[in-house]
Design a protein that fits this description.
Blueprint (H helix, E strand, L loop, with lengths): L1 E5 L3 E2 L6 E2 L4 E4 L2 H9 L3 E2 L19
Length: 62
C-alpha cells in the first residue's frame, strides 16, 4: 500500500477517518489518491529510488 503526506486536514468520506496535517494517508486506490491530491489534501511524492538490476557475474572456466 502506498503512503502519502497529508498537507491539509480532512475526513475521508469513504472510511470516515480523520487525517491531520502532517499525518500519513495510505491507499492503493489510484482514483481516490488522485482526487485527494488534486484537491490539495495530500502530496504525492516519488521517493521510490529505482536502481538498475545487475547482470549476474559469469564464472571463469577452468
Amino acid at each position: 500500500m502506498a503512503s502519502y503526506k497529508v498537507v491539509r486536514a480532512f475526513t475521508d468520506n469513504e472510511t470516515e477517518k480523520g487525517y491531520n496535517e502532517g499525518s500519513t494517508f495510505t491507499s492503493d486506490d489510484e482514483e481516490r489518491v488522485s482526487f485527494l491530491a488534486d484537491n490539495g489534501f495530500i502530496k504525492i511524492t516519488t521517493s521510490h529510488k529505482v536502481t538498475p538490476k545487475r547482470a549476474p557475474r559469469k564464472k571463469e572456466s577452468d
